[in-house]
Amino acid sequence: MPAAVAITGLGAITGLGGDVAALATGLREGRCAIARLTAFPYRGRCDLAAQVPDAEAGSHGDRLPPATERRLSHADRMALAAATEACRDAGLDAPSRCTAAVYVGATTGGMRETEEAYRRFRGGQDARFRLSRLLGTPLSTAATVVSQALGLFGPRSTLSTACSSSALALAAAAEAVAGGRAPVALAIGTDQLCRVTYAGFDALQALDPSPCRPFDRERMGLSLGEGAAALVVENVDHARARGARLRALLLGHGSSNDAHHVTAPHPDGAGARVALEAALAAARVPPAAVDYVNAHGSGTRQNDAVEVGVLRTVFGARLGRVAVSSSKSQVGHCLGAAGAIEALITVIALEQGFLPPTVNLRHPEPTWDDLDLVATAGRRAPIAVAVSSSYGFGGHNVTLVLARPDAL
Amino acid sequence: MNRDALRDQVKDLLVTGLRLDVPAAEIADDSPIFGDGLGLDSIDALELVVLVEEKFHVSIPDEEVGRRAFASVSALVEFILSERG
């Protein structure tokens, strides 16, 4: 069994703000970043999203060749912003960064820039399709530019398992350091809003016309978001030897798949349950020791019902004493970035002794009144062990078990 | 078209076509287009060939011609004028 690994650095850029401090403040204040979609013109059933303004993702010209910097997609800029903050937070100097591994989770990369180039071509504004606008499209581009900008020379991989992509990237980072493949690893999730995903989810009638209301009896779907998060992962001994601050421990992870359907979760939640139970087993944590679940909580009718069923099965009679909330109610569903963002939120929750809320949850399902869904506002609670779950389309399930450093 | 107007059009094409973060007026007439100054790379070179061919209806058939045409903004202006006859 892999040993617990330390999380020693955090970086995030979300609809709640351009860094981890802004995110933490937004969580505490119970703010909802979901507002009118402005990233591109769109006419459909729904027009809401949790967006990161282009300017907030910043420029990175001091560390990249100007031509490369100029062509960065919004997703790449957000990844760079989060990764830079995480490395600084972890106190990783250039020699330490040199051997670091990089694992990125993403689903659409710079698709929006490509869509824009196609729109200009179709609209006659460009006589030929601008091929340079395709440069941000490969999902691996974020990992490439982050490595280049920060000087990371260790193993590198990009994972794309729909909405669990960056939860899996964090699991891969943990395995890399626990397995001795790198002393330090950076796990990053990044995704930007684009027309393909927005119109796709809208066509599936998976978007709530109001800001999403996970676990609410009137919930009608999810709200899309965009953002990036980065977490620095290293072995506990390595972190201590260099005097790094342990922000949390990643005790274990589990993954599984539903082998069921391209979009719908398996109705009995078998796959999600396997991932949760495998994560707890790997972490050597009994269900009774879990204080908080940062749920996938997408807000679709199917997901939330299946997820509550899984929690009920695994936690049994103790479920009422496990706080459960969905951060997607605040930052939207950030797809490939969701797993990393929500793992990072879970670290903040552990560190600050604060249960982040499910905002917009005003009418809990009556049959779920045995759950503590942290409705509307967060609250203080001394939590030691927490779980973060991400369930991607196609049944890609990943669960992470995180703990306060003093849980060792 | 006179040289000055064409020079402004070329600079404007550089800035808008390649999305450069410099005002067109600040681009030097006689500095190399692909020197360090504007921070352009080989992908920009490819795009610039396409943009110039489209906008000014000239042909840049090979590297030899390209090297001469893109020596500087002034050189590009002269190239366009001579190609148009």
Describe this entry's structure for a reader:
The complex is a heterodimer of chains A (408) and B (85). Chain A is of the alpha/beta class and 408 residues long. Chain A folds into two domains: 237 residues, 3-Layer(aba) Sandwich (Peroxisomal Thiolase, Chain A, domain 1); 159 residues, Peroxisomal Thiolase, Chain A, domain 1 (3-Layer(aba) Sandwich). Chain A is built from 13 helices and 14 strands. Chain A has a ten-stranded mixed beta sheet, sandwiched between helices. In chain A, strands 2-3 form a two-stranded antiparallel sheet. In chain A, strands 11-12 form a two-stranded antiparallel sheet. Chain A is globular and about 65 Å long. Chain B has 85 residues and is mostly helical. Helix content of chain B is 58%, strand content 0%. The relative contact order of chain B is 0.19. The mean pLDDT of chain B is 92. At the A-B interface, helix 2 of A face helix 2 of B.
How would the blueprint of this fold be written?
The complex is a heterodimer of chains A (408) and B (85).
Chain A: E1 5-13, H1 20-29, E2 34-36, E3 48-50, H2 66-70, H3 74-90, H4 94-98, E4 101-105, H5 111-122, H6 141-150, E5 156-159, H7 165-178, E6 184-191, H8 195-203, E7 227-235, H9 236-241, E8 248-257, H10 270-283, E9 292-294, H11 301-315, E10 323-325, H12 328-331, H13 338-352, E11 354-355, E12 379-380, E13 385-392, E14 396-403
Parallel strand pairs in A: 4-5, 4-6, 9-10, 9-13
Antiparallel strand pairs in A: 1-7, 1-8, 2-3, 6-7, 8-14, 11-12, 13-14
Helix pairs in contact in A: 3-6, 7-13, 10-11
Chain B: H1 3-17, H2 42-56, H3 63-69, H4 73-84
Q: Quaternary status of these chains?
A: heterodimer
Radius of gyration of chain A: 20 Å
**Biggest interface, and residues per chain?**
A-B, 12 and 14 residues
Compute the separation of the termini of chain B in Å: 12 Å
Distance linking N and C termini of chain A: 15 Å
Task: Tell me the total number of β-strands of chain B.
Answer: 0
Kindly estimate the percentage of residues of chain A that lie in beta strands according to DSSP. 15-25%
Described by strand count, sense and barrel closure, the largest sheet of chain B is: none
Helical residues, percent of chain B: 55-70%
**Would you identify the regions of chain A where 5 or more consecutive residues have pLDDT less than 50?**
none
CATH superfamily of chain B: ACP-like
Mean pLDDT of chain A: 95
In which order are the strands of the major sheet of chain A placed? 5-4-6-7-1-8-14-13-9-10
Number of domains of chain A: 2
CATH H-level name of the largest domain in chain A... which superfamily? Thiolase/Chalcone synthase
